[in-house]
Amino acid sequence: MTKVAVVFADGCEEVEGLSIIDVLRRLNVTADMVGLTQIEVSGDHHIKLTCDKVVDDSLLDYDLVAFPGGKIGAENLRDNAKLRSLMVKRHKNGQWDAAMCAAPIALARYGILNDANYTCYPGFDQQTKKDAPTGHFKEQITVTDKQHKVLTSRGPATAWAFAYAIAEAVGIDTAALKEGMLYNYLADNIQASL
Questions:
Q1: For residue range 125-147, what is the model confidence (pLDDT) as tens digits?
Q2: What does the alpha-carbon distance between residue 98 and residue 80 come to, in Å, rounded to a whole number?
Q3: Secondary structure of residue 91 in the 3-state scheme
């Protein structure tokens, strides 16, 4: 059974984390909300989130672990020693890790972006380039680096693209859900609404 964990820290971008949970659960994938240090998390926009569990060694059992962004949330993820240790082990095990918006700063600090293709929120690449100078920054909506098992995305508006890319990275067919959630319609018609 495929399992994905989304790690929520105080100050996270709520829509980014919840988009992943929503899409994966619609696809019948086990998707757990994992609090960085506690079950109750306060997002960057003062939305209270109740997680399923708190970070522990079980993160090693997930097919993919994803981080939502938000500057404060990303810094909390980046600076947590326990999470760093687990993520480094996951990376050495060849497991998928994902981060979007500001959160690639955590993966960069952990060494996970070394030599990998990735993206992040505009401006945060200055920090990722310092911590992971051998990484390859791209300006795409999402970047999936299959060789390094790293998936990244840009910011709040790219959360759905990120969520679908996560599902696809772990082998889930997203075609029907993209149609049903009007994602394809959005992709085909967004220019007309701008």
A1: 999 999 999 999 999 999 999 99
A2: 17
A3: helix
7's enclosing H/E stretch is strand 3-8
Distance of CA 126 to the CA centre of its chain: 19
pTM for the model stands at 0.97
Residue 180 DSSP SS3: helix
| Alpha carbon distance 60, 23 (integer Å) | 22
Question: How many helices (H) and strands (E) are present in the chain, helices listed first?
Answer: 8, 11
Q: Are strands 40-42 and 48-50 parallel, antiparallel or unpaired?
A: antiparallel
Per-residue pLDDT tens over the stretch 52-108: 999 999 999 999 999 999 999 999 999 999 999 999 999 999 999 999 999 999 999
Supply 165's token pair.
């890319």
**Number of Cα atoms under 13 Å in the Cβ half of residue 86:** 22
Considering only CA atoms, which of 111, 1, 14, 148 is closest in space to residue 62? 1
The Cα 59–Cα 81 span in angstroms is 14
Amino acid identity of residue 21, one-letter, is I
